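Notes continue from the previous slide.

Worked example: a multi-chain complex. Inputs as given:
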Amino acid sequence: MTDIRPGDCADALAQVREHSPLVQCLTNIVVAQWTANVLLAVGAAPAMVDNPQEAGAFARIAGGVLINLGTPYADTAAAMEQAVAGATDAGTPWVLDPVAAGALAWRTEIAGTLLAAGPTVLRGNASEVMALTGGAGGKGVESVDTPEAALDAAVELAGRHGTVVAISGPVDHLTDGTRVVRVSNGHPLLTKVTGVGCALGAMIAGFAAVLDDPLLAAVGATATLTVCGDRAAAAAAGPGSFAVALLDQLALLTPAELADRVRLS
Amino acid sequence: MTDIRPGDCADALAQVREHSPLVQCLTNIVVAQWTANVLLAVGAAPAMVDNPQEAGAFARIAGGVLINLGTPYADTAAAMEQAVAGATDAGTPWVLDPVAAGALAWRTEIAGTLLAAGPTVLRGNASEVMALTGGAGGKGVESVDTPEAALDAAVELAGRHGTVVAISGPVDHLTDGTRVVRVSNGHPLLTKVTGVGCALGAMIAGFAAVLDDPLLAAVGATATLTVCGDRAAAAAAGPGSFAVALLDQLALLTPAELADRVRLS
Amino acid sequence: MTDIRPGDCADALAQVREHSPLVQCLTNIVVAQWTANVLLAVGAAPAMVDNPQEAGAFARIAGGVLINLGTPYADTAAAMEQAVAGATDAGTPWVLDPVAAGALAWRTEIAGTLLAAGPTVLRGNASEVMALTGGAGGKGVESVDTPEAALDAAVELAGRHGTVVAISGPVDHLTDGTRVVRVSNGHPLLTKVTGVGCALGAMIAGFAAVLDDPLLAAVGATATLTVCGDRAAAAAAGPGSFAVALLDQLALLTPAELADRVRLS
């Protein structure tokens, strides 16, 4: 059912560590610091260039670009358009994270427009993915649906837009429209720290910067984050110490440990 | 002098955990991540929707709304007006945190306008509360007055605007104009981490979403945060580890422990 | 080669602790929280006033001002101009941190304009400093040059603009155009947490608020941060726990310990 194996995830992480890809993030005010720290910990180089004066030019030189709709404003939404145009023009891989699409009208419209531009990877929770095919959407930023329930929508979106779709949840589901990969390392504490999903989107952009297969980029990033989540949870007293330990683990995890611990199906 | 007892605080916390209220935050760029993590830790669901295109509509479906003036911009100030209009229209409880009111002209004017719209709860430090009755105001974001000195101003504001007023400080003072409640669990380390007061405002919005009595919402949230502060301080080496432990404690504290440790008068 | 000694750094830190200077920060969305927490930990009082309606007036009452170009927007860039005008008018010391100058056109232009206004201290990495003399500039926010290579550019900028120039790196190099001071406490983990350099800029503004010699302010802040970095690294498992320990150490470090551990040349 899948040709992506644990060893491929290990190689993907090794590539990120070796090349330290420059990841441009147009993300939200809530998770900008966390996202930058996650990227640094895993071995990438973050750059939060999200104004319309610079975003387009920077997307031409970045290794990968993240577009995250968590807190859009007129100014940053304009920057997102510029960044997508620049990325498309230069062939820079880019990731769309349509936070709360379906729950709010303006960003749902923005998400639709950006999706039509063909992101390399679309990452969201089940409700967000379903909303982009015309589903009902979630309550705020949290999913009310399961990844399993969104898989058909994901396959449809993947085929329609030529994008990999990564649905985050207890079991992550990822597809390029043909292949389907499940990553079963999700820990409940991952939902008790804000921005874990947002940071995953940024990690996928970093992995996509150094890998030819966008599905492997999404799977490798998801595997790295969730395996580190498992390890961090083992030592954490609560969500505060979990977030700290997660950053530590992202820096400490070796490719061999990743291959050993990831559960793919 | 008060009809709010420790057991009421325990029940309030239990209600938040049970219902996981959706709290819309229009807050500042400094504390957005911290506020979201505090809300998640205590059991609420944060959503930082602070653009004028979406804030009004979201305030109609949120459980509670926080308006925090820490870093206002033209765009987000417009969103605050929309959110207050939406909350008022839908009967959504909302909290006003007039950060640095009195010290800066523009936000003092905004705070006055928002206060006139009748927030469910006004939360600030003593200088901010006094400034809203025409007092002198503090130095920047820190209070130069004690909660005791601001109590008369708080009672006046409560009566005039039909709002609960929560004055944060070494001993928190809270009033609905008739009842006065003091919470005596404030630890000095709470002032060495940015955004603790801002996060309290968000917690009050979450508690108000699931409780009928806004004074109990403010007291319950204050009790929860400050009791967790006491517990976190016991194990902390400094402000960094204190902030981490505070998030852990917010997730770990049981209603029974809260009732046991809170000091009300 | 230098008349600044370890004991001067100790005195500088003691002055900050005694006077708790009010530091206005116009900084980026990535590091705003971290910067505020660093300032609180070291003993200063942060206030992130970065809108054009208030920034100019606040710069007249602040002890020091930080202008950081990490994520400029039209609105905050206008606020920066106001803040510089207010600071200049009132004689408030101010620090310019030209994040990614040279790599991006708009901010390079802004940085040039602000630099011409004569900041008290210019703080950046080697690539940023070199870019401001017409050098090539770095890749995103990371330096591709060494502080040693940028020293001539720094001395030139210091003389031309009457500013102290602080070049961050493995060995920090600081100059007022006449004196050159090197601080050799830089730890590699400092580059694995976002915003350490940005927070240093804010610390320099705080030190400059209470000291007459801007070079001592820059050296004292750099010494304090990097010595705390050494101490934090000794106990850290990775970048997450390092950042937490760094905040703790900033609050725990005594002036005597600073004098004992700083390596000046």
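Summary box: The longest helix of chain A spans residues 214-235. Chain A touches chain C at residues 22, 24, 29, 32-33, 36-37, 40-41, 45-51, 53-54, 57-58, 61-62, 75-76, 243-252 (CB under 8 Å).
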